[in-house]
């Protein structure tokens, strides 16, 4: 029973520690003024250890100045490790500033 608790604790620790966040600023986002709004949110999907991309949120973006935040949360890690890396999800959030009249998509 003690070994099972240690294994569960190790796996839980490994899952939470492997959550990562990456931010990229595209265009002139840093110099824009205005309130930050979420323009789009979704998932990027990959196959075969991130070698083949099935879905890309960024390709439908119609603005040129934005911030892209890519993260792998706990659910994404469960899928990744549960399929031994064959299927991979990343949660992507696109943010912009509303000075140019950009409106968030619903």
Structural class comes to alpha+beta
Number of distinct beta strands: 5
State Rg. Answer: 17 Å
- Report the portion of residues in β strands: 35-45%
Number of helices: 2
Uncertain segments of ≥5 residues (pLDDT<50)? none
| First and last CA, distance | 48 Å
**Shape, principal axes of CA atoms:** elongated
- Count of spatially separate domains: 1
Average pLDDT confidence is 80
Major sheet description: 5 strands, antiparallel
Strand order within the widest beta sheet: 1-4-5-2-3
Percentage of helical residues? 10-25%
Order of helices and strands: HEEEEHE
Could you explain how this protein is built, in words?
The chain is α+β, with helices and mostly antiparallel strands. The protein has one domain. Helix content is 24%, strand content 39%. The protein contains 2 helices and 5 strands; from the N terminus they run H-E-E-E-E-H-E. The chain has a 5-stranded antiparallel β-sheet, covered by helices on one side.
Can you summarize this structure?
The protein has helices at residues 2-17, 74-82; strands at 20-26, 36-47, 52-55, 66-72, 87-97. The chain is α+β, with helices and mostly antiparallel strands and 106 residues long. It has one domain.
């Amino acid at each position: 029973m003690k070994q099972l608790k240690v294994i569960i604790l190790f796996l839980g620790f490994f899952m939470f520690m492997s959550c990562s966040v990456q931010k990229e600023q595209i265009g002139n986002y840093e110099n824009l003024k205005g309130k930050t709004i979420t323009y789009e949110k979704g998932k990027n999907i990959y196959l075969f250890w991130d070698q083949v991309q099935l879905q890309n949120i960024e390709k439908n973006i119609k603005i040129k100045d934005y911030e892209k935040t890519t993260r792998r949360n706990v659910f994404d890690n469960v899928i990744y490790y549960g399929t031994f890396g064959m299927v991979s999800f990343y949660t992507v959030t696109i943010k912009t500033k509303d000075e140019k009249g950009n409106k968030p998509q619903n």
